[in-house]
Records
---
Amino acid sequence: MLSGKTVLIGITGGIAAYKICELIRMFKRHNANVRVICTPNAMNFVTKLTLQNLSQNEVGIEEFEIPDFKPEHISYADEADIMLIAPATANTIGKIANGICDNLLTSIVCAFKKPVVIAPAMNCNMWENPIVQENIQKLRSTGYEIIEPESGFLACGYNGTGRLADLNKIFDKTVEIINSKKKLTGKKIVITAGGTIEDIDPVRYISNYSSGKMGLALADEAFQQGAETVLITTKDIVRPYKIIKVKSADEMKQAVEADFGGADCVIMAAAVADYRVKNKAEQKIKKTDSDSLTLELIKNPDILKELCTKKTTQKVVGFCAESENLIENAQEKIRKKGCDYLIANDISRKDIGFASDYNEVVIFNKNGGQKRIERAPKNIIARKILEEIYE
């Protein structure tokens, strides 16, 4: 399955480095050309000769070993289809996240424009360090694929999260990315995410519990599948595709309409406030002796319904969050709105939905069909939703 593909494996200085010998064999058994780069510290755990025999290629370690007058970090980057760093230590993760290129491996990563997969492995306390976690999130936000470590007994004697992920999991994810077809190339997909904010006065507002994670997962997946991706969100997000930051329902409406004409699909995953304050106070509302405060609310525009009345060739996908009678309410909503698909999720459950990394949804289509997607990480849910839209 990997004939004609070159996998560049970067090994850093962790005890799990010895496991990568078997990972190299797995790639070779599937006819991949395997190139190996090691940090100098990796040589404390595995030998150059072993890696060369397994990969059947010269192993790169020193940055200035330049054969044929070619800059090594550029030539390695040009030749490979994908780069896998396993195990990735906290040290190397920090360097990559901050653009430090002080060895051959980190220089290659900086010059690498194709997919990069990082499989961390370290002591559990190091993994939980907030700086390490910040670096991981920074790498995720710029398009790196992170295969998180697993929990268990560690070489240092601790029991916790930090063990290198199962080799089959690392292999399967790498192969999946190499062989993934850019099914959505040429499509423009506009996605909304997050809960809108409706000001009461300069310090107070009306909003909801939406974290924006489902919309973000959809945008990440659409981008990975080759779509021109536009994410309109109320959250502060950094991604390699177009991000439009909005606040209120009215701002979101304007942003969606601006990109709607050229879109192939619009997915309204945002939790848009149904109402806003009629007369927003220009100054902070002061507390008085009265035991109550009355706010007059007026309806916000129904962005989803308006899009459905304007669509020509576009697919319009809505979301609904229900705390009861999920199927009945979703069927009624898709009928009233007129959208092509409606994704319903149950917000009464604590193990999915708002703020969770997991979800479980039912996908309804305009022809009356429905399909349940069982509880799974939101990135998997996003992939299945896009598969359903683009059969």
---
Amino acid sequence: MKSYDAIVVGAGPAGIFAAHRLAESGWKVLLIDKGASLAERKCLSRGGLPCVKCKTCSIMCGWGGAGAFSDGKLTLSPNVGGRLGEYVGQERLQKYISQADDIYLAYGAPTKLYQPDPAFADEVRGRAVRAGLRYVPSPVRHMGSDRSVDVLKGLFENLSPKIDISLKDEVLDFETAKDGTHRVMAISGEYSCRFLVLAPGREGSAWFSELGRQKKLTSAINPVDIGVRVEVPFEAMKDLTDRLYEPKLHFTSETFEDAVRTFCVNPRGYVTTECVDGLVTVNGHSFRDRRSDTTNFALLVSNRFTEPFHDSIAYGRHVAKLANLLGGGVLLQRLGDLEAGRRSTPERINRNVFAPTLAEATPGDLSLVLPHRHLTSIVEMLKALDRLSPGIYSRDTLIYGVEVKFYSNTIKLSAELESEVPNLFAIGDGAGVTRGVIQASASGLVVADAILGKK
């Protein structure tokens, strides 16, 4: 067996940033991911063709993880993007967010920062309150999907001479010896290490949850985020997106008092698909040099399950499976059709004042897919958003479904993100710790510093 100081499983932002910091200290590191290199990550659906449900999704897996082809937004606030602050504290989290941001800047992220002046932030906060919403001020650095790839290329070129990187590989299992060292069994072979870092990403959340069950690790059930992707004319949100880029808005639904939030706002962006374990879900991107006439964003409803139900991932998969069953992939419905209680048809979509940017989406009826509770909460938030920014709640507003964010059940972790198994750490979205690129990156730095302090 080849021996390493540390093995990192997952080459998304969390895994890359952990490996980057360890490599800076001259550590012998192996980084494993089931996906391919950036150059090999090809997806037909990014070119407008239907998703063919590859066994390993090139949008979700590989160097850079799901963040590689995301909108490339770095939200530099400790108040959004995950639960990392619950472990390390808000002040320490802000320090790590700043460190992660500095690394992105060093590899070519744009220096421009979308940060509203205090007067405009106060204005938006007041408008949001009157609409029944809560505005969370968040500085945003926008890379765009294309520049994100350039930054990740730079990170790969810097790291590949310093560490071993095994792509198109997969960890099958691991065993921990009495002395705290780990034996890792992968498709490519067996390896040993003192420190093992699991950074599975959202695509690996089910794998991570199952691993926790097998190892009998104490776990807590994470919420599941289920919702839709909304598309409106660019002008409907222009006053917000021009100065904030991504307004973070939270809402408590009137009927069920569920938590609903905006996520991944893409001014002049494009609605896209992604595939998780054979299920096609919807997402959104924007680019540096390619612009549409629309803005899209997700509306996500969070539900936390209690006894006796434990599998929030299975619940999210079931909802996504219904959409795939009825539409062969992503379903699309005009808001006017949803209000009228009828399915959208190609003819009704063609009469819209703007065309959908995801042409492959199947016109249909989302009320046959989303639970009544979720759909009611989403419609109520759309009405609230319209009070904040008139034009959002329109008969021609397009709703794509479903968007599901899979986060695994969180295992018990220390303030340094170390598990009950000595020298075993868990980081990133797939471990249920974070919910976005910048906090995932920061979690990698947290664990790397913890490991460096142990040697």
